[in-house]
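Summary for the steering committee. One of the milestones for this cycle was to obtain a three-dimensional model of the protein with zinc ion bound, which we needed before selecting residues for the alanine scan. The sequence and ligand used are listed below.
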Amino acid sequence: MAKDYYKILGVSKDASADDIKKAYKNLAKKYHPDVSKESDAGEKFKDVNEAAAVLGNTDKRKRYDEYGTADPGLDQNFSGFDFREFSQGFDFDDIFDNFFSGFGGGSRGRNRRSRGRDLLYEESITLEDAATGTSKKIHLKGVGACEDCNGTGADGGEFMTCPSCDGSGRNIRSQRTPFGVFQMQTTCGTCQGHGQKPKSTCRSCKGDGKSRKDNVVEIKIPSGAYTGLRLRVEGAGESGDRGGDPGDLYVQITVQEHSTFERHNDDLVIERSISFTTAILGGELDVPTLDGTKTLKIPQGTQPGTILKLRGAGMPSIRGGVGDLLVKLSVEIPKKVNKKQEELLRDFDSASRKKGWFG
Ligand SMILES: [Zn+2]
Ligand SMILES: [Zn+2]
């Protein structure tokens, strides 16, 4: 169960941002572990901050109101708390910033290289291409790593220790407050907390590490591909920060409708009509397949709606094996017959009735 953040802050569901801020300030003061004498103050302080982090942020509050949680990571594990996001939504006084030193914000890893984002691309192919398998070139703009600096943003990939923070990635400031002296940690603005900065900025990418060129990725679409199939091209997504690992590219396949064949998993289905005489006497029927025309045997006495199977003339399965071609037959009855045909049919009819064939 998610925590009731409104209850924790003691505000109503329609509390304004100001109400929340006020309630938060009072409770944060009350439960701050350096101030409070209560034994569970630390726990309460954490809850209060967690509640304010959600309700103090318009987006998170909306999500929380709708789904009962601001995000899964926050609900299950408080370490997912992103303090920077919190403070953006809330605009605290300096003194309240101090409360947060020591949890959440300060421990951002130095030299952290973040992985690039995954990308999703949609590719539409014909049924014929899905049957044989094919390859496609996908052009992605500005997602690869800069070739000149390997995505690091530093000329020659060379870094130096950040002079502003001496490589710690943090600036620490002490401040005297009514509650005592607090140390306040902020992320170093010069190196964004990495602790290192480029000796000189890469000229090709101006330091962002992203390639300006089109990235052409060739993907192999396997035989038997179907609509909804998702292929992953490892490392073909957006390049990571500072030479971090790239994300992956996902290619989602749509197989276009075909004018002749309807696909049912690995089988292909077509509808054909035969004459009533072929239905009675049997015969042959030419049918289209993905490999050209094939001849299908029609047995004597074929009924309307019969489905005949041409084994192995369907779609190859992505897991191996091949489906069948299913031919659904309808029977055509001539609307007119000539005199001679009518005579023959009447003879056929009376002979059949004598034998009791037609009830
Ligand atoms: Zn620095
Ligand atoms: Zn570069």
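Key point for the committee: Confidence is low (pLDDT under 50) at residues 71-111.
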